Amino acid sequence: MSINTVSIGLINPKSATNVGAILRACGCFGGSSVFYTGQRFRYAKDFHSDTKNAHLHIPHIGVDDLLSMAPAGASTIAIELVEGATPLPAYSHPENAFYIFGPEDGSVSQTVIDDVDDVVYIPTANSLNLAATVNVVLYDRLAKSHYMHSDDAIKQSRDNNNNLRRTNKD
User: Fold this and answer.
1) Which of 4, 54, 74, 88 is most exposed by smallest CB count within 10 Å?
2) Structural domain of residue 85, as residue ranges?
3) Integer distance in angstroms from the first to the last C-alpha of the chain?
4) In what order do the strands lie in the sheet with 75-79?
5) CDD domains annotated for this entry (predicted)?
6) 3-state secondary structure of 9
7) 0.85 exceeded by the pTM?
8) If we measure between CA atoms, which residue out of 1, 9, 138, 140 comes closest to residue 71?
């Protein structure tokens, strides 16, 4: 499943568990690549949470500067709790997007906020875990797309442990 082009940028992630879950989210919701900065994650690539082995087919590359890695023609979008940002429910996702997320224990820098095309926030009572934030954004993108809603889509998405069907009650 590919919904246009979707790349993820992670600022200095500290947790291989979160990055594994982000790779799995990319596999589920159509993310094509993950770029990350910082040293904390480069040496902790134990993907226990990537139970679908998305890391084997989705590139995840350590870089020095996320904005320089934005794919050609991609709109850059920071996801952060920033005053004046667009709430996710009201946001129209661009076809070619590079979403940038801050670290688990910090925020996207003011420099990045100033340099991106859009800033979006997820309305919530508190900040979300990094992997949860990526999942919510990628799901929102898919839900707002022209994704095929059908039994064929369900069959394609589920794993071998699920062969359930809903039958009509008469």
Assistant:
1) 4
2) 5-154
3) 35
4) 60-62, 33-36, 5-10, 96-101, 75-79, 118-121, 86-87
5) SpoU-like (cd18098)
6) strand
7) no
8) 9
